[in-house]
Amino acid sequence: MLSYDSAVPNGQDSPSSGPLPVPSAKPMSTSAAGTIATSGHGQVQRQHQHHLWLVTGPAGCGKTTVAEHLANALSIPYIEGDLYHPQANIDKMSGGIPLTDSDRWDWLTELRKQSNSRINSGADGVVVACSALKLKYRDVIRVAAYYDRTLLVHFIFLHAPQELLLKRVAERKGHYMGANMVKSQFDILERPREDEVDVITIDASQDSDEVKQDALEKVQAALAANM
């Protein structure tokens, strides 16, 4: 079985080749109306689509604010990625030590499992706040669609100048992610590539209400395009 997890044994770096294929047991095609599966008897069965929305970007870009707004507006569950970091990761970040790739694999896999669990429990979709700074991190989440062929994965990338994010994080109270971590995140940040067609880009330097409105409008447009 093709799995991104097995492509990076022991948490070691390996080149990423972009979005992973999503195998299926039966021939399948997609249209604006949704996923259409062909049964072994030639019958066409239209399947209801589900959506996984990953709100991504460096610390201070407003992931939690935007993700909570989208989840409330769409009436779907919200997962705060920071809550699923193991204590060892939190201790490192609290001490100003950047996480390595190996620190993130289990965290990303857990977020993927939590997302699939919400969908399997009956939710039409789920919103997750997760930095997903590198292409291969985003690919780990994309594997969620392997386990559910009705699932469409989307990334909402919030971008803003490093200086602005440093200022925002410095003003936060009671969060383990300090301002010194913003630079480390920018150092490893891999902005979405042109061939990552499942990414929506939002200018997070706008006023908070403008960012939320912009994100919701683009999400609603994406939903309408897949109805």
TrEMBL record:
This is Gluconokinase. It comes from the Eukaryota. InterPro entries: P-loop_NTPase, Therm_gnt_kin. Residues 27-38 have a biased composition (Polar residues). GO terms for cellular component: cytoplasm. It is an enzyme of class 2 (transferase). GO terms for molecular function: ATP binding; gluconokinase activity. PANTHER family: GLUCONOKINASE-RELATED. The keyword Ribosomal protein does not apply. It catalyses: D-gluconate + ATP = 6-phospho-D-gluconate + ADP + H(+). The keyword Kinase applies. Signal peptide: none annotated. Keywords: ATP-binding, Kinase, Nucleotide-binding, Transferase. Pfam families: AAA_33. Residues 1-42 are annotated as: Disordered. Pathway: Carbohydrate acid metabolism; D-gluconate degradation. One of its GO terms (biological process) is carbohydrate metabolic process. Its EC number is 2.7.1.12.
